[in-house]
Amino acid sequence: MTNPLSADIIESALNQHKQFTHVYVGYSGGVDSHVLLHLCASIKSLGGKITAVYVHHGLQAEAESWAEHCQKNAETLGVNFTMLRVNATPTAGESPEEAARNARYTALKPLVGVDDVLLIGQHREDQLETVLLQLFRGAGLRGLSGIPESTFFGLGLMLRPLLNVAKPDIEEYAKNHDLQWVEDPSNQQNDYDRNFLRNTIVPLLKQRWESCDKTVARSAKHCAEAQVVVSAVAEELFYPVFSKSNKTLCIKQLQAQKSPRQQLIIRHWFQSLGLRMPAQAFVERIQTEVVAAREDSDPILLGQGCFIRRYRDELYCLRQTEQEMLLRDMHWPAGQTSIEFASHRTLSYLPSSTGILHEQWQKAKVSIKFRSGGEKIRLPKRKEQHSLKNLFQEAGIPPWEREKIPLVYLNDKLAAVGDLWISADFYHEKPNSCIQLSMQGEQ
């Protein structure tokens, strides 16, 4: 029987998209990526466009020799070669597999330009393993869609042209062309879920259902098609509820939807914020503990690296790092037009015809402080002083954001509250002689 695997599969995948300037091939030295690279190198139209990329995770003692092996094979095939070193140490909550994958993709992304493509050698059995893992984790349609054949990556695309190819066909191709590949010993360690499936469960399944990789891949495709429809519905529901200015959801409009649609909106919200898709239990807790809470309450739900909070009629999703921001009093150096008062947050001043006199600013000792409670300020054209608490309430600023707004003191007297208000004692109107404050960075 003739092996169905040929370079036509690669050309067909590439031809579905625009002409690529450069083709990067993820090359680990294993049989899958070696076959993929060999196929690519056989395509005359790709001559000079191919770079084999080896990602050095530093997890195996043999990694250096594997890199040398990959480089020699690339040279033999007449393609370019590059090696990227990464730190694959898992962070809190990451599995070793996840840490290695995240580190690998983070390193690869900067390579892929607007007219470039990255090819990955995943095959149909990888798809089977992925769908089974997602099924055992209780995933929804998105998870059960498995691995996509193409996806945006870096500034270009990532394609998996072998995704519908059976593993035995890849191995047969490698043997027929006398390819030499490396075997990662960690693939035999059943401590990892994927390895346990690959080494123990899938062989048993195939004894009973020989073509289960093909049928499960077909189910994954059905799920992916259904997910496209669901995503379109979610988007229609999402934008009337979503506020672009502060990336919140309107609680009253969210409550007007039935529970399943609320969940669709919340999941789409996480996706729009670039966060990992929330677990079903977490979505339900958002609904019951935060969305359904009394309007005057301040529930705080922590999970998946973020805080879910509400203020008035808005639902907020705040990254945990934002909530744990380190704030300290500091001196604003003379002659410096801006100052970083917290990680990725800057306060600067700009020329203006209204505001604090520039001359007065230059002569004063300028300092940044944060609320300790009881601060008051008198605003221009108002007779009485107002507490900052009342002003923040009038402006609709959530309580957790108030603590992060810098207070600017001139000679130890409160002159401005961030870029919101200037004290009447320091406010002037004089053409081209004043400054106005401006805050930049993550809110």
Short description:
With 443 residues, the protein is α+β, with helices and mostly antiparallel strands.
Written overview of the protein:
By secondary structure, the protein is of the alpha+beta class. It has three domains: 217 residues, 3-Layer(aba) Sandwich (Rossmann fold); 85 residues, Chorismate Mutase Domain, subunit A; 112 residues, no CATH class. The chain contains 16 helices and 21 strands. The protein has a six-stranded mixed sheet, sandwiched between helices. A five-stranded antiparallel sheet has the order 7-8-11-10-9. β9 and β10 form a beta hairpin. The mean pLDDT is 91.
Features:
alpha+beta, Chorismate Mutase Domain, subunit A, 3 domains, 39% helix, 24% strand, elongated
Query: How many individual β-strands?
Result: 21
CATH topology-level fold name of the largest domain: Rossmann fold
Overall 3D shape = elongated
Query: How much β-strand is present in the residues?
Result: 15-25%
Please give the radius of gyration in angstroms: 29 Å
In order across it, which strands form the biggest sheet?
A: 3-2-1-4-6-5
- Specify the helix fraction band: 25-40%
Low-confidence region ranges: none
For the record, the count of structural domains works out to 3
Distance between the termini: 62 Å
CATH architectural designation of the largest domain: 3-Layer(aba) Sandwich
Structural class: alpha+beta
Largest sheet, strands/sense/barrel: 6 strands, mixed
- The total count of helices amounts to 16
CATH superfamily of the largest domain: HUPs
Mean pLDDT: 91
CATH class of the largest domain: Alpha Beta
